[in-house]
């Protein structure tokens, strides 16, 4: 039998811009994409055994999977559910199950999302982002809080509701931040 991947030590949890992150790897991912993508972390639960529930005394518990992020590119409007993992994560069956759960969920609700894994070796920070990451680590080490940043990842001038709506369904109100056009972000099937 194959040995299943296990984290060897607890991950450092952190709240960055009001969103709970499970690890510093997730923080690195957010730093890498935060200028090119809108992102959310909270409220992404996917319930996947609801059809198996039947009235009775021994109903199975409702099961859920929570992807790490939903991101949407500011320029292309492309949305992706993302699961961030270390390169050594080797549980093929868990990866395939999560991929199927997400694909089925996306298809069932007709979302314009895709799903993918992002591996630690794919998270590359430029020197500016690496310096920001190092500064956050230093602040965590010195002061031991787990809160960094504002209360929401939104620094665009959009309201938090508008930002969340853009990430989830691709709609931007006019005028868009930084002169981006609404048409470049709003898929035809959304009002």
Describe, in plain words, how this protein is organized in 3D.
By secondary structure, the protein is an alpha/beta fold. It has one domain. The chain contains 4 helices and 9 strands. It has helices at residues 24-33, 92-109, 127-143, 160-169, and strands at residues 14-16, 19-21, 37-40, 46-47, 64-65, 69-73, 79-85, 113-119, 147-148. It has a 4-stranded mixed sheet with strand order 3-6-7-8. Strands 2-1-9 form a 3-stranded mixed sheet. Strand 6 and strand 7 form a beta hairpin. Mean pLDDT is 80; it is low at 1-5 and 181-191.
Number of extended strands: 9
Order of H and E elements: EEHEEEEEHEHEH
The whole-number mean of residue pLDDT values reads: 80
Structural class by sheet pairing and helices: alpha/beta
Question: Portion of residues in helices?
Answer: 25-40%
Number of helices: 4
What would the principal axes of the Cα set say about the shape? Answer: globular
Strand content: 15-25%
The biggest beta sheet reads: 4 strands, mixed
From the alpha-carbon coordinates, what is the Rg to the nearest angstrom?
Answer: 18 Å
Distance between the termini: 52 Å
Low-confidence stretches: 1-5, 181-191
